[in-house]
Design brief:
It is built from 11 helices and 5 strands; from the N terminus they run βββααααααααααββα. It is mainly alpha-helical. The protein has 2 domains: about 60 residues, Arc Repressor Mutant, subunit A (Orthogonal Bundle), CATH 1.10.10.60; about 160 residues, no CATH class. The longest helix has about 35 residues. The structure holds a DNA duplex.
Length: about 230
DNA sequence: AATCTTTGCAACCGCATTGAA
DNA sequence: ATTCAATGCGGTTGCAAAGAT
């Protein structure tokens, strides 16, 4: 295999590498809309996106999935991560299943950034002054990052709302399945039952919640932050 | 003002697992 | 039983932005 200026030459042709463009995102979402998730190696042939299957799957899972929760990790989520990491170690995907809307990559990055260096949980365990200063800096940074993400997400939202506005029923099974594949098989069904899932898709442009610290619901023994979605929908 | 360092995240890589042929 | 493609997972890297010197 050869690599050249962000392109990778393989037996199948040229695969683009590096950061994704808005146009590539649009093509990938178009693929999912038409063919559902999976069979990622077909993306290139079916919608003309010059990315390999792995790259497409990763982009969808970590960035484009409509059920992703954006914004900073809340203190409650942080405590969950700490608890589950203590129990399971670096099993990020397992931990992620207990935090719907969060990806394994996101949790892994969060852990490495905030806890890894310290060699133990609770990075704010030095002095209180340092702790609060660190917290403030961290929150400022996260807010800035979030603003950047929101701008990006606005682009994605525009595409999403355009693509899915007339096809809720087509997309519903995919989202429902995504929900059910998480640890809590009842989630997808319950949401659908309550008409929430439909609303989530219809109002997709507005479901990018700033996570609330409260109202974390224990659901079938798992954790689910309903508050922010309910507020968006009510 | 310029340079160096730190931070957080997106994306890639290699390996393991799964499932179909 | 074997092979092979697709997918999943965890570790790692590269880069942009902000802070520190």
């Amino acid at each position: 295999m050869a690599q050249n200026m962000g392109w990778e030459v393989s037996g199948e042709g040229y695969w683009k590498k590096g950061p994704w463009t808005a146009e590539e995102d649009r093509l990938l979402m178009e693929y999912v809309k038409l063919h559902g998730e999976g069979r990622w190696n077909n993306v290139a042939t079916l919608v003309g996106l010059k990315r390999n299957g792995k790259s497409c799957r990763l982009r969808w899972v970590n960035y484009l999935r409509p059920d992703l929760k954006r914004g900073q990790i809340t203190p409650h989520e942080e405590s969950i991560i700490l608890e589950l990491h203590a129990r399971w170690g670096n099993r990020w995907s397992t931990i992620a299943r207990s935090l719907p809307g969060r990806t394994d990559n996101e949790i892994k990055n969060y852990w490495r950034t905030h806890f890894k260096k310290k060699g133990k949980p609770s990075s704010e365990s030095t002095t209180p002054e340092k702790s609060s200063a660190h917290m403030v800096r961290r929150q400022q940074f996260q807010q800035q990052q979030q603003q950047r993400h929101q701008q990006d997400q606005m682009d994605v939202n525009a595409i999403m709302s355009f693509m899915f506005k007339d096809s809720d029923d087509d997309y519903l099974p995919i989202l429902t399945q995504s929900m059910q594949e998480m640890s809590y098989p009842s989630c997808g069904g319950v949401l659908e039952e309550q008409g929430l899932l439909h609303s989530m898709i219809s109002g997709y442009g507005s479901i990018l919640p700033e996570a609330s610290n409260e109202d974390i619901t224990i659901w079938d023994g798992g954790l689910w932050n309903l508050d922010d979605r309910y507020h968006q929908l009510s």
